[in-house]
Amino acid sequence: GDVQCGGAPRGPTLSLPRLLGHGGGGACCRGGPAAGRLPEGASPSDTFSDTFSDATSPAGCSRCGGLGRCLCCLTAKGTGQATPTTHTGSVTPEGDALPASQDARGLFERSPQCVPAIGGIVDLQRGHSEHLLPPEVVLYEPAPGEVVKPSGVRSIFLNTPLTAEESLALGRLRRLLAQRGVLRADEEELPRYMATHALRMLQSSKFDADRAVEMMEIAMRERVRRVPIAEEEVLDDLHRGFVYWHGRDRQCRPCLVLRMERLGDLVRETERVVRLIMFSLEYALRYAMVPGRVENWVIIVDLGNVCRSISAWHLRNLICAASALSTVLDKVHCGRLGWVKIVNMPSFLAGAVNGLIPHDKRDKTSCLKCPEQVA
């Protein structure tokens, strides 16, 4: 059958940087991806990196003493896998990506149609944690029910065969885009900024091509115009500790934590909040996911002490910021949510919070009385 391909073998080349001091220290052992391959005939046009060259890791690694415990040694066990060469960094003969490796700003200075679907963050200056992309994540094998749920809802989209219905839906979307002049012909490549997300958009739109096109326009308006986002632009806001990644669930999905009490005066600046969240999400998509294995995230929203840090006069601003975040999570990065758990919610906010939860996401959202229930 057809394959929805992310343009890269399973496994990103870099692990998630150490933001806000969470996670371990030190640079990670940056090897090539796990031994997954591009499906036959698939094009690497939407890869995170420009080129792929055949290379393998050394038989013995100085970082783990040749015990085979680091990512470099684990990925060397595969044969014929590709080692990415990134835009501003390079790859050593041993296959390790250099610390400067990151997306180049020039990728985002093209026409909006050519903006990469994944990435959006540039000028990274700080190191990468070795803990947020461990070998067990890179080599994680999702169960069949985790790829496509018994209800028929797909969770894993890349490097996996598509059903006949999904292929037909993508064909209808291409024809509609050709009719509207977005594509010159229905055989032309989809716009790069949404090509790898097309099936997610269709599924989120109940396979209504017109609604999927509307989601494309939202992605153009809310994401493409904002990227790239440089680390330095959001670093001070990251240090607040309002948003950070912390651990993974049993399906290896990274966990985004929102500590609302640390939002502070940012509550009055919705655009800054949106850029901060978007930087964090783009960062996880670029460095913490494994196409075909781990493609989604989970979220914990902690509302503890929110009334002490945010004045009642600013509750309207808080709701506006929450609404903007809902748009980013539900429309721009649709189909990525595993679950949301809300903890320490004041009773007087229950109505407003419930009103912000999209109807089709309510089965994934729960309010817990005790934070310990998250585990």
Automatic annotation (TrEMBL):
Gene3D superfamilies: CRAL-TRIO lipid binding domain. Transmembrane segments: none annotated. InterPro entries: CRAL-TRIO_dom, CRAL-TRIO_dom_sf. CDD domains: SEC14. Residues 239-354 form the CRAL-TRIO domain. It comes from the Eukaryota. Pfam families: CRAL_TRIO. This is CRAL-TRIO domain-containing protein. It comes from Zooxanthella nutricula. The lineage of its organism: Eukaryota, Sar, Alveolata, Dinophyceae, Peridiniales.
